[in-house]
Amino acid sequence: MDLVQLQRQLVDYRTSLYHEGFLDEQFTQLQELQDENNPDFVVEVVSLFFQDSERLLNELSKALEQQIIDFKRMDAHVHQLKGSSSSIGAQRVQKLCIVFRNYCEARNVEGCLKCLQQVKHEYALVKTKLESMFQLEQQISNAGGSIPV
Amino acid sequence: MDSCNCIEPQWPPDDLLMKYQYISDFFIALAYFSIPLELIYFVKKSAVFPYRWVLVQFGAFIVLCGATHLINLWTFTMHSRTVAMVMTTAKVFTAVVSCVTALMLVHIIPDLLSVKTRELFLKNKAAELDREMGLIRTQEETGRHVRMLTHEIRSTLDRHTILKTTLVELGRTLALEECALWMPTRTGLELQLSYTLHQQNPVGYTVPIHHPMINQVFSSSHVVKISPNCPVARIRPAGKYMPGEVVAVRVPLLHLSNFQINDWPELSTKRYALMVLMLPSDSARQWHVHELELVEVVADQVAVALSHAAILEESMRARDLLMEQNVALDLARREAETAIRARNDFLAVMNHEMRTPMHAIIALSSLLQETELTPEQRLMVETILKSSNLLATLINDVLDLSRLEDGSLQLDLGTFNLYAVFREVLNLIKPIASVKKLHVSLNMAPELPEYAIGDEKRLMQTILNVVGNAVKFSKDGSILISAFVAKAELLRDSRTPEFFPVPGDNHFYLRVQVKDSGIGVSPQDIPKLFTKFAQTQSTAIRNSGGSGLGLAICKRFVNLMEGHIWIESEGLGKGCTAIFMVKLGIPERLNESKLAFMPKVPPNLGPAAFPGLKVLVMDENGVSRMVTKGLLVHLGCDVTMVSSSEECLRVVSHEHKVVFMDVCVSGMDGYEIAIRIQEKFTKRHERPIIVALTGNTDKVTKEKLMRVGMGGLILKPVSLDKMRSVLSDLLEHRVLFEAV
């Protein structure tokens, strides 16, 4: 595909992510932090986010399978997830975490289970989207062009 | 018998005749002896009798005569020769003395007679003196009356009192029957009876002024006797047999405007009042000279007193008028202030009320433009946007103008890039100009400084307005904008005599000329251009919109910037040139000015803003820790990361200037860590500033932070700009409190 077309595609894609609420301005901030001293900053942060979130989601699933549910520990995990997602600007995930925390406080198992499913779903979505975006960026830099901001 | 020499008596001694002779002689002698005694007695009594010698002589003469007669007693009978001898001697002496006395008396008697004449003369003189004394006393009394009258008159400044007192006192002093004062009316053609002593007659009775007798009185400065039949004197009830004599005197009325110091004796005005004095009827009294003189003196005094009273009245009236005017002015001022305040309140409210919906309309219309629209819809939205923009501009203009009018507008001074302003104007105007096929060119003089101090927004507004006008009023052709530094000789422009700019060291005058080739302006319309709401009545431009406020506002902005704006045109159809000069400051040192507008610096100028600043970041959450590190590294800091509180306490050293701590950590309370860190460093200057990163800014958290002694609080998520400003604040003040 043409370089210009690729770039335009990237811009459109990013705009759509913002529009659909997957990402918020925190993500823009991250992009601003990327410069020639730190060329892969965004990718690194996002990768770390993926690792962290998967770990946390596993922990949460395990906790909800227990007989006696440790809501406090769950709350801590959700809190962590909320912090991570807000740090990179994964808006939808962050919002769900807030809801999740409310259920934990209310010790509502059903609510928690439902919420966990939703969080997993949203996380998967945002992960896919971000990965596609990075792929596009990679294609552009391979073609020798510069990534538009 | 002896012969006797004596004559024999002819008759016998016992004759009766002899006896009678004998007795008479005896008594004569007695009398003669007693007279001198009496004389001596009385002379002794009187002290001043000048003729003693005469008396002595007379006394001697009398005594001798007496002696003679006494001795005669012995000659009646026979007497001896001795007796005859004594008799003879006595007689001789007597003869001598009497002759001498007689001689003496010739001298003395005329003297005695003249004494009598002198006495008569003195008596006459005394009578005359008495008369004169009486006269003098009368005069003195008159004088006393005059003085008293004058004192009475001059002791008051009230006109009525003066006149009334005059009449009363005169009446009393001179025992007048009637005394009246006639004042000239406003028209000056009549004399009106103003005051009378006894008020027998109606006040308000008038007499025409041009009566021969009245003229006679007015033309003389003395008292004039007038006939009792004169109209001014006919104010007594008729029926008296013999009306008393009447005199009249003029009383000059001095006007304020007549006071000329130089010709004080001659009165320039001929306004007189008439004072008429009437003696009692049937008294056969006559006017005496001294009484007339008294009347003259009084009349003069009255004139002076009246003029004083008039002056006083005048000044009191003027003062009252001034006071009234003051009150009225005060009221007007307060009303004006109230009006201004009301207007400002109205404007403030309207400002907000009008702008809010305008913003909503404009914002939403522009958002609407971004969406999918059919061409018709797009056209409609564009029209809405254009109209609402115009309306917004109009609202702003009107509000600005009102604020400019009462001087409450102040310039927002700041350092700005002069070239950028012109480029911006050019960018804004180019689309419209190209639509109209107008060519716009900008010429900036090289000696113009890059940066200047002034009100950027309003300068841009002015330039835009002027250039916009040029575009608006040109159908084709070109527009040339030139900007340069005004030279000193150009500063004194003969066309603007009231503008005296003074160039100085830290300011310069920017001169901008916008020349267009449009419809121009006729010379008589040029002054009107800068007045509000006035538009030239050319039909070609009537539809081009605008409220006519633009140039008025520009003029006020330019004036605020201590400059001048004017328009030159050679006439209709010959284009016009708008020229303005404004005073701008020269920034001191370029790096200082750069520092001053740091907020506008784009982020990629930011790195190395805090080179080498050692900071410690503590956050349990890996992702957020990494993001914070990224932020700080981007700003040039040297970042150490820790993921737990224990690690934090271990790692923190005096080299770390700032510690960023996420306080939503489990395990040890973030606040506790802060306390522990502070305990670790006893010396103040070694202690790092601790900043909390949190998603929570309720009051409780803040209070906790304050109590613990944290340097500040940042709300997550943190943007790059926020972090930068936080760090700069922290390093400057060592404390921030909240950055949201």
Automatic annotation (TrEMBL), chain A:
<dbReference type="InterPro" id="IPR036641">
    <property type="entry name" value="HPT_dom_sf"/>
</dbReference>
<keyword id="KW-0902">Two-component regulatory system</keyword>
<keyword id="KW-0007">Acetylation</keyword>
<dbReference type="InterPro" id="IPR008207">
    <property type="entry name" value="Sig_transdc_His_kin_Hpt_dom"/>
</dbReference>
<dbReference type="GO" id="GO:0005634">
    <property type="term" value="C:nucleus"/>
</dbReference>
<dbReference type="GO" id="GO:0009736">
    <property type="term" value="P:cytokinin-activated signaling pathway"/>
</dbReference>
<dbReference type="InterPro" id="IPR045871">
    <property type="entry name" value="AHP1-5/YPD1"/>
</dbReference>
<protein>
    <recommendedName>
        <fullName>Histidine-containing phosphotransfer protein</fullName>
    </recommendedName>
</protein>
<keyword id="KW-0932">Cytokinin signaling pathway</keyword>
<keyword id="KW-0963">Cytoplasm</keyword>
<feature type="modified residue" description="Phosphohistidine">
    <location>
        <position position="79"/>
    </location>
</feature>
<feature type="domain" description="HPt">
    <location>
        <begin position="38"/>
        <end position="143"/>
    </location>
</feature>
<dbReference type="GO" id="GO:0000160">
    <property type="term" value="P:phosphorelay signal transduction system"/>
</dbReference>
<keyword id="KW-0539">Nucleus</keyword>
<dbReference type="GO" id="GO:0009927">
    <property type="term" value="F:histidine phosphotransfer kinase activity"/>
</dbReference>
<dbReference type="GO" id="GO:0005829">
    <property type="term" value="C:cytosol"/>
</dbReference>
<dbReference type="GO" id="GO:0043424">
    <property type="term" value="F:protein histidine kinase binding"/>
</dbReference>
<dbReference type="Pfam" id="PF01627">
    <property type="entry name" value="Hpt"/>
</dbReference>
<comment type="function">
    <text>Functions as a two-component phosphorelay mediators between cytokinin sensor histidine kinases and response regulators (B-type ARRs). Plays an important role in propagating cytokinin signal transduction.</text>
</comment>
<keyword id="KW-0597">Phosphoprotein</keyword>
From TrEMBL, chain B:
<keyword id="KW-0479">Metal-binding</keyword>
<dbReference type="InterPro" id="IPR011006">
    <property type="entry name" value="CheY-like_superfamily"/>
</dbReference>
<dbReference type="GO" id="GO:0046872">
    <property type="term" value="F:metal ion binding"/>
</dbReference>
<feature type="domain" description="Response regulatory">
    <location>
        <begin position="614"/>
        <end position="731"/>
    </location>
</feature>
<dbReference type="InterPro" id="IPR003018">
    <property type="entry name" value="GAF"/>
</dbReference>
<keyword id="KW-0067">ATP-binding</keyword>
<feature type="domain" description="Histidine kinase">
    <location>
        <begin position="349"/>
        <end position="588"/>
    </location>
</feature>
<comment type="similarity">
    <text>Belongs to the ethylene receptor family.</text>
</comment>
<dbReference type="InterPro" id="IPR004358">
    <property type="entry name" value="Sig_transdc_His_kin-like_C"/>
</dbReference>
<keyword id="KW-0418">Kinase</keyword>
<keyword id="KW-1015">Disulfide bond</keyword>
<keyword id="KW-0186">Copper</keyword>
<keyword id="KW-0256">Endoplasmic reticulum</keyword>
<keyword id="KW-1133">Transmembrane helix</keyword>
<dbReference type="Pfam" id="PF25487">
    <property type="entry name" value="ETR1_N"/>
</dbReference>
<dbReference type="InterPro" id="IPR036097">
    <property type="entry name" value="HisK_dim/P_sf"/>
</dbReference>
<feature type="cross-link" description="Glycyl lysine isopeptide (Lys-Gly) (interchain with G-Cter in ubiquitin)">
    <location>
        <position position="716"/>
    </location>
</feature>
<dbReference type="InterPro" id="IPR003594">
    <property type="entry name" value="HATPase_dom"/>
</dbReference>
<dbReference type="InterPro" id="IPR058544">
    <property type="entry name" value="ETR1_N"/>
</dbReference>
<dbReference type="InterPro" id="IPR005467">
    <property type="entry name" value="His_kinase_dom"/>
</dbReference>
<feature type="transmembrane region" description="Helical">
    <location>
        <begin position="20"/>
        <end position="41"/>
    </location>
</feature>
<dbReference type="GO" id="GO:0010105">
    <property type="term" value="P:negative regulation of ethylene-activated signaling pathway"/>
</dbReference>
